[in-house]
Amino acid sequence: MTVDFQSxxxxxxxxxxxxxxxxxxxxxxxxxxxxxxxxxxAAALKRRSQMPSDQRLLxxxxxATGLSVLILFALLTTSLVAGxxxxxxxxxxxxxxxVTGNQWxxxxxxDDSAPSxxxxxxxxxxxxxxxxxxxxxxxxxxxxxxxxxxxxxKLDAIPGxxxxxxxxxxxxxxxxxxxxxxxxxxxxxxxxxxxxxxxxEFERWRRGQIAPSVQPVPGSVEEKGKQAFLSLPCGMCHxxxxxxxxxxxxxxxxxxxxxxxxxxxxxxxSRGHLGGWITDAQSIKPGTRMPAMNVSAExxxxxxxxxxxxx
Amino acid sequence: MKRCSRATCAVxxxxxxxxxxxxxxxxxxxxxYRELQPAPADRALVETVxxxxxxxxxxxxxxxxxNPYHGNAFAISEGKRLYNWYNCSxxxxxxxxxxxxxxxxxxxxxxxxxxxxxxxxxxGRPNGMPxxxxxxxxxQMWQIVAYVRSLGGLEPQAASPSRSDTMQKSGGTPAxxxxxxxxxxxxxxxx
Lengths: 311, 191
Fold this sequence. Notes:
The complex is a heterodimer of chains A (311) and B (191).
Chain A: H1 14-46, H2 54-87, E1 95-102, E2 105-110, E3 119-122, E4 124-128, E5 133-139, E6 144-147, E7 155-157, E8 163-167, E9 173-179, E10 191-197, H3 199-210, H4 221-231, E11 261-262, E12 267-268, H5 271-284, H6 300-309
Chain B: H1 6-32, H2 73-85, H3 89-92, H4 114-123, H5 138-151
Helix pairs in contact in B: 2-5, 4-5
């Protein structure tokens, strides 16, 4: 399904459908009332010479007040009913995710009772269509806000606190989300993708993410790139499972080639963009925690080949 | 002294106010100065940094190297973040020491000058301190140096983190007299 970029009015999940319904009810009602008030005003202006009797005036004002109260209560009920049905969307056996907002990227951890089934990825959430997802939102530094308009409203990610968001995607597709709380220099470059797919596609993706990183063939260019990765400072912050790089403060790169974007939705994931990002991230995203790297000209192509092989 | 008229008094007060605000603004500029594109190159110290004042045979002392981030609040807070990111806290804890020496007291085995701390991080020291050369970009090492010095009260109090989740040296009691560092105060430029 193709959706307009981040549109609240193109709901793809049950929560956003409720919100879109409330939006339509409120907008249509408000428009009708505005039109009625303008017509009444025009009529009053036209007949301003004839002053109605006090009794008639009292009746009109009384009726209008009563009508306003009724309409406001009806709207309040609509909003409460929508809020209730969103809040009751819980599932005893949801897909559990931990999403942590960082300056300026999203860490996504898939929880499981078996430790070998948990894994971490960045800026990309895959969910099976029709299954309820429980997202525990946290923040590591400042307040962020998680917002995927096609699926749900905003919820803040606050340091030292866990906020829980429930959502369910009913239509397969890729939905863009972004940070909705100003969080520093690169707040605008803090996006993520939610990819809703069929249960079998999701399971294939999940199996792929759990697996350790691809081991390059000895003597290959990827092997040379892996050596470059491990000799450069990369592993101080990043981890690639299956190697000695186990930094925990930057996106996990074990399966970086499987992701659609790099730098939190800033750039598409391609060899050229990756090269630019590694050598001079500060020009692309000034202030990012990724420092400029001094990669030699003979190390960079193998390094890129290695990263591209991490499917 | 002749008293000024009301108008000239007002002008003088305004001038003093404007000058004061300008000075405040300028000093806070330096306190918050941030370089968004620090040089990627490793600018290892060329001179060997002395850790004692003993010198063989009347050799002149090498020029002192100042921390480009001295008194820079942004750099010190970045240093604080990196101190935990790079697991300095794994041995030194939050400055109190444990596996490694304490950083908030006034005993420095290899010296408390910025260049000496930088050298300690860059090359490592015997009995446990690893060498971080090639692992941590140079400008980040200087940020960590600034933070480590702030732990012991060696950075200006106005620039040091005022509140911490962990134990902290109380303000206003520096472990050693804070003195302005020699050399260039601006962060390293791109070559």
